[in-house]
Design a protein that fits this description.
By secondary structure, this protein is mainly alpha-helical. Helices cover 61% and strands 7% of the residues. A two-stranded antiparallel sheet has the order 1-2.
């Protein structure tokens, strides 16, 4: 499934996960408010809240009532491990199937030599 075809809350979760993995948000950092992120992405605040809830359920962030949502210590490392596992088990097999279907040379793909 193309990420553009994913539900909005999944795309928002991917956006936040990438920001944590890049180091844009480190342990102890406050994430943007639900309203701010909703406005930035043109999303419904309830949809953003759903994406944030997934992060809370997965143990990457904590809510401080009346203050906001904060990245927990070790979240980036645990998130990287989980995202790697997801990529290897779910994403890579679909990519590999598409590579084979199109008759692409993986060595050329890795070297960026495919036109």
């Amino acid at each position: 499934m193309n990420s553009d075809e994913s539900p909005v809350y999944i795309r928002l979760r991917q956006h936040i996960a990438a920001a944590v993995l890049r180091g844009d948000f480190r342990a102890g950092d406050q994430l943007p408010s639900v309203r701010a992120l909703a406005a930035e992405h043109g999303a419904n605040p309830l949809t953003v809240a759903k994406a944030y809830q997934r992060f809370q359920d997965e143990g990457y962030v904590e809510v401080r009532r009346g203050v906001g949502m904060f990245v927990l210590t070790g979240a980036a490392e645990r998130l990287r491990t989980a995202e790697r596992h997801h990529f290897i088990k779910t994403t890579w097999p679909r990519i590999r199937e598409q590579i084979d279907l199109l008759g692409l040379d993986t060595a050329q793909l890795i070297e960026g030599e495919v036109a």
